[in-house]
Structures are given as C-alpha cells and as structure tokens.
Write a structure and sequence with these properties.
Largest sheet: 2 strands, antiparallel
Helix content: 40-55%
Distance between the termini: 109 Å
Strand order of the largest sheet: 1-2
Low-confidence stretches: none
Strand content: 5-15%
Number of helices: 13
Radius of gyration: 29 Å
Shape: globular
Structural class: mainly alpha
Number of strands: 6
Oligomer: single chain
Number of domains: 2
Length: 377
C-alpha cells in the first residue's frame, strides 16, 4: 500500500473516530439535559403541589371548633403564625402571601371560633369582623437607642421572664430562621453574618406595645415588635433606591443606629449623617465611640483611649465603613436622617457637655473646639 493510500485510510479512521465521539457527546448532553429537565420539573412540580396543598383547608371534613385569640396590635404576619399554631392553616407563610396577593387587610383583633375545614377566604372574612378587645393587661415601652440586652431587661420586668430566657430566644438560630420566613422583607441573610453579635440587634422598633394577656409568649412579644419594624420600614424601602451606602433594610438600620447613638436632644441628625457619609466616601473610618462600647459589651459614659484598641469588626476606629449590623434600635428621626444626610463638607462633630453638637471641616478646627469645650471641663 502506498503512503498516499495509507494516509487516506488513516484519515478515514480518524474521521470515523471523531464522528463516533461526537455521537457519544451528543448522547451524554441529551441524557444530561433530560436529567436536568426532570429535576427542574420535579422541583417545580413539588413546589406547585406543596403550595396547592397549603392553600387547601387543613381538614375539609373536620367539625372541630377551635377558639383563637388575636390580640390588638398583632401584625398580619403574627396573625398568620397564630393561625398555623392553632391548626387553622397549614402554612403561615403561604397564608400571608395569599392575603398580600389578594390585597386583603383590615383584620380585627378579637376572639374567634375557627375550624380546620375553613378555606382561606372564609378565614379572611371572619378576621375582618372580629370584636375588638379594649382592655389591655400591660404595656411595654421600648425607647430609642436601646440595645438588645437592655430591651430584654425591659421585657423581663414586665412579663416575669428572665433576661437570660429572652436573650436565649432572641439569639436562637432555628427561631431566627423561622422569623426570616415570616418577615422576609426586613430579615435577610445579612443578619446571620458571622461577625454579627446578635441577629435581631436594632430590629425591635422603639414604641409602646399593648398586650392583652397576662403572660404572652416570648415569641409573640418579639413578633409584635418585628411587625412594627416591618410596617415602619415599608415607608423607607423606595427611598433606598440609588443610595450606594444605605441600600438595604439592614444597612439602613445600621446607619440609623450609629446616628441614634451619637444624637442628643439638641442634635440635627441630618448633620451627623452627613459626617458619616462624607467619611465613608473618602475612605475615612467613622471613629464613633458608641461602636467601641458595643464591641466591648459595655454601657458607660466615656470611652478611654485604651478602649479604642479593642479588636472587633464593630470598632469603627479600626474598620472602614459601617459596622456589620446595628448597635441599637433607632427611631424614625434617625431612619430619615440615614437616608437624607445634609449637604455639608463636615468630617468631624463634637458633643459638648450641654448637649450642643459642633461640626468641623478639618481636624485642626475639631481639636480647637475640643480644647475649648471638653478639655477644660
């Protein structure tokens, strides 16, 4: 056989080999595609069946009557949870999404008699006609600028639970994940970051909360407060669009908490906000003392120079930008300021013993004011 014929034969063999490999690859790709399609179909189908089942009555044949109490001030999310706990709906989250989709609201507090055979629409109709209870048993007032351990103490004083019981529930990972499912618009994965000291720090909104039973569960107290946070933050979501620094509820609460902790009664919070924004924009540490105290776990009036060396992701003398999360709760004035900083060139501010806050553009100006108002005190 000549070299030419030999090369031709070799070429044909290689061509057949490549064609065989191509057919094999096509088969593998086809099989992989079919498998992926089956998996997607299974997930979608399973999800559809799950939601379809959750939309149906718990037990269409049941004649059992269940007494359910909806306290005044309970959020729609809290109502959904109460219904699930009492076996009236299969899934609180699905019921909550259903009411949102149907744009249902105006649910009333009261005493209800439900059955597991009721449909969502029947339950919603009943919830709109409740008899409002008007005798509160006690109130819990949460002031602005309180940290989670301080809030736990306030709750404990009113309910008889211990601080430790309350903090244990507030830091319980499994419960936090349940809350994330109940309040997805405000509780995101950000609260589970490894640097976060307490996932719900800053999330229990400062307000006065009435309760209508002698000793409500810790869960119902927490969820009532989170419901108020969800309601308030709903007014700010749209304002975060286009904001590069405060672009999520978590960052909004974080910035607002720093402003709240630095503010005094005489403070223009928008001015303090402008200082924080200006520092972040030029890569300058925020250097705000309350973050140092939070890192140390202390409640004290003054920060010592040695305190500034604490190694913590919350120490804004060591890190740049915002802390991993809020360091306290914040009121609406601080939330508004966090999204609407004044237009200034200020990089420094100083709170005087009288409560006045002085602002400076340069370190020299700041030190001069500090010598005049603080050092000589």
């Amino acid at each position: 056989m000549s070299d030419k014929e030999s090369n031709k034969k070799l070429y044909k063999e290689k061509l057949l080999e490549r064609q065989s490999e191509a057919r094999m690859i096509r088969r593998i790709v086809l099989i992989a595609f079919i498998i992926i399609l089956l998996i997607i179909s299974g997930v979608v189908g399973g999800g559809y069946l799950y939601v379809k089942s959750a939309l149906e009555p718990v037990d269409p044949t049941s004649k059992e009557q269940i007494n359910v109490t909806i306290p005044i001030g309970t959020s729609p999310t809290g109502i959904a949870r109460i219904l699930e706990e009492n076996g009236i709906v299969k899934n609180a989250k699905v019921f909550r999404y259903y009411t949102k989709f149907k744009n249902e609201s105006g649910f009333q507090a009261g005493e209800y008699i439900f059955t597991p055979a009721m449909t969502f629409d029947e339950i919603i109709t009943s919830l709109k006609s409740g008899v409002v209870m008007d005798e509160e048993v006690f109130k819990i007032t949460i002031p602005e600028g309180k940290q989670l351990d301080q809030i736990a103490t306030i709750i404990a004083e009113k309910t008889g639970y211990t601080d430790e019981e309350i903090m244990k529930k507030l830091d319980d990972r499994a419960y936090i994940e349940e809350l994330m499912a109940l309040f997805p618009s405000i509780l995101t994965e950000e609260i589970l970051h490894e640097d976060i000291k307490h996932p719900l720090e800053g999330y229990l909104f400062p307000a006065t909360y009435p309760f209508y039973e002698e000793k409500p569960s810790i869960e119902s107290i927490i969820e009532t407060m989170l419901g108020q946070t969800e309601k308030v933050l709903g007014n700010y979501i749209g304002l975060m669009e286009g904001n590069e620094i405060v672009n999520s509820p978590h960052k909004l609460l974080t910035m607002a908490s720093l402003i709240e902790e630095e503010a005094t009664a005489l403070t223009d919070r928008e001015q303090i906000s402008s200082v924080f924004y200006n520092r972040i924009e030029i890569g300058m540490p925020l250097q705000t003392d309350p973050t140092v105290l939070y890192a140390l776990g202390k409640h004290q009036e003054r920060v010592l120079y040695e305190d500034l060396e604490v190694d913590s992701p919350y120490n804004t003398y060591k890190i740049q930008g915002l802390t991993p999360g809020p360091i306290a709760n914040a009121g609406e004035m601080s939330l508004t300021a966090a999204l609407n900083p004044a237009q200034t060139d200020y990089l420094y501010f100083l709170a005087t013993p009288t409560g006045e806050v002085l602002y400076s553009n340069t370190l020299e100006e700041h030190n001069a004011k500090k010598a005049q108002h603080i050092t000589n005190q």
